[in-house]
Amino acid sequence: MEFKHLVEAAEKWCSGNPFDLIFAEEDDERRLDFYAEPGVSFYVLCPSGTDSFHVWSESEDCLPFLQLAQDYISSCGKKTLLEVLEKVFTSFRPLLGLPDIEDDSFEHYHTDMEGEPGPDQQQMGVSQQ
């Protein structure tokens, strides 16, 4: 993907969360730098060719939180920039003062299962008479 398209995708992603894209450079390395209050920063090195994305932070406080995103990137399959950014955002939620969230796919399943029982469904432990 062309670097300008990656920058556009990053800017769009930033519009839905506390991060700002503060730097984008293509000369030496294809790098996107992000920052959010209170001092949460990271950067993404974008692949050129068959490489994969790489996330890192120059802040020692942020580095441990990036492990989840780094593991995700190194797992099987090619990742998109938006997938990587979403994983980083999830990893940084505690640092940003946001509540921790469960995996979305589980949440949707769990919500669907909590509905009222239908007329043909018997509640467990309660006999219908």
TrEMBL record:
One Gene Ontology biological process: regulation of signaling
Signal peptide: none
A cellular component term, taken from the record's GO annotations: cytoplasm
Disordered: region residues: 106-129
Compositionally biased intervals (Polar residues): 120-129
Compartments where found: Cytoplasm
Keywords: Cytoplasm, Developmental protein
Family statement drawn from the similarity comment of this UniProt entry: Belongs to the MTURN family.
Descriptive protein name: Maturin
Organism of this sequence: Scophthalmus maximus
